[in-house]
Specification:
By secondary structure, the protein is mostly beta strands. The protein is built from one helix and 16 strands. The longest helix is centred in the N-terminal third of the chain and has 4 residues.
């Protein structure tokens, strides 16, 4: 068993572009679209995330089906992908939990937790410490855009003491 039995509390906050900016982009259709396309029947919110991939990787789209979790949620581990960014696009209109940490000299700093509003996705910058995919409702169905390629692209960090994530 990893870590101690002491639990620290982390309150989830609403996901906003400004609060999430140090970790990546919030993907949402808010405000006026950048362009109107398809004979005037579709608004395009253009180029909302920067995809980052190592020299020998390419973008791939996968579909993830994750088991739903509940709040309070026990956070014991975070991970990062040094070779590429990772975007999570929910395929249902349910909120999900997003946990990220600033980098503190190669290790994760104090985590932050965000709750999406059911109409938001996220793009995590390359090398961003983050929790695992954490849907709060079934089905936990997501399209994921990330790096496909050779080499190690996963680092895990287990906390000495877990965090308990609660609703804001």
């Amino acid at each position: 068993m990893r870590g101690s039995t002491a639990v620290r509390t982390l309150r989830a906050e609403p996901l906003t572009a400004a609060a999430f900016a140090p970790f990546g982009e919030v993907l949402e259709a808010r405000g006026a679209p950048d362009r109107i396309i398809n004979q005037g029947l579709c608004g395009r919110f253009h180029d909302r995330a920067g995809l980052e991939f190592g020299a020998d990787g390419r973008a791939g789209i996968s579909v993830f089906l994750a088991e739903p979790r509940a709040l309070p949620y026990r956070l014991e581990m975070v991970e990062r992908h040094p070779e590429g960014s990772q975007a999570f696009l929910p395929m249902t209109a349910h909120p999900f939990l997003v946990i990220v940490c600033p980098d503190a000299g190669g290790a994760p700093g104090t985590p932050r937790a965000f709750l999406t509003d059911g109409a938001q996705g996220i793009n995590l910058r390359r090398g961003t410490w983050h929790g695992v995919l954490t849907p709060l409702h079934a089905p936990g169905l997501f399209a994921v855009v990330d790096r496909i390629g050779p080499g190690a692209n996963l680092e895990e960090h287990w906390f000495d003491a877990p965090w308990e994530v609660t609703a804001g």
